[in-house]
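Usage

Read records sequentially. Each one opens with the input sequence:
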Amino acid sequence: MKIPLSWLKDFIDLDGLSVEDIARKLTLAGLEVDEIKYVGLPMPVYQDGEKHEFKTSGIAWDKEKIVVAEIREVNPHPNADRLTLLDLFDGQQAQTVLTGAPNIFHLKGQGKLPKPIKAAYAKEGAALYDGHAEGLQLMTLKRAKIRGVDSYSMVCSEKELGIAEDHEGIILLDDDAPVGMPLADYMGDAVLDISILPNMARNANVIGVARELAALTGRELKKPAIKFKTSGDSIDKLVSIEITDPELNPRFVLGLIRDVEIKPSPYQIQRRLKLAGMRPINNIVDATNYAMLELGEPLHAFDYDVLKERAGNKNVRIITRTAKDGEKLITLDGVDRKLTSMNMLVCDESGPLSIAGVMGGAESEVYDASKEVLDAKGI
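and closes with the structure output:
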């Protein structure tokens, strides 16, 4: 399991402990740390011949050269149709940067933006990964001339900063990112890759590992305050639940969320999911995955309109049962899976909807046009 250090710090004060100290304590307690990946934070320096206690990888972000900036204007490149010129402020002075990023290209020629966009900005001399190379190859950002325009800095993609493999666009930070702050201070991280033994499944989530660290260090566990409000009428007339085997699935809960607005999650949520090895989808799906990783409670969201259509616009009947040998389900990753009686399913009267606690089916997934979402939790 991959756990970002920043996420652990939501639940326990780790001040005074190095990443290696934390990894050592967890390993001695039976939560073996296989690797530490540094994402912006400084890596440990070993003397010649000194043994590396843990496998390490990653990149440190120079605090002087990689900072939060805000893009204020987007203008066309005078000599290249596929490039744009960004006028930005790095906290000290205005800069002009070239980019071909597709997630900013649609603003080409707009000029001054009605609302500045926050981005990760690297200055000349910064050490980054080469976004165009195969694998992870370090490079030093150098001054160049691109189609007649001087280029001496850049706005960064996730690959260039070692966050993920994505090089299709630049990182668009959340609005609260402080302009001029070193990016390492804003979102530098380290990821612990931990082997969770079957008899320690209680630790297969962020709070579980934080609880273990609290016991190992004598520090307080900051339990999350879980508060939520429900409104509207009961959904009993819209959805019914049938549990076929209470020993395998003693409890199943559904909630209907209406008038949802599907959009990307805040970047810090996306970043944590990526560091934990998951792919961000949209705000609804990301919320279920985020809660699962944090609490260890599998959740899944279904498109309620799809379920209504499958039910002939009648009461949606949700059934939990084991699969029939040879039964099939196309899952969210597009794989047509052949199931066995060892698989627990969430179904409707038309057939399987998801492999319970593992992966949803493609047909009922939440997508950009979804307006009503059925959120499921099984215990």
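Summary fields computed downstream for this record:
- The longest helix spans residues 283-295.
- The chain has nine helices and 23 strands.
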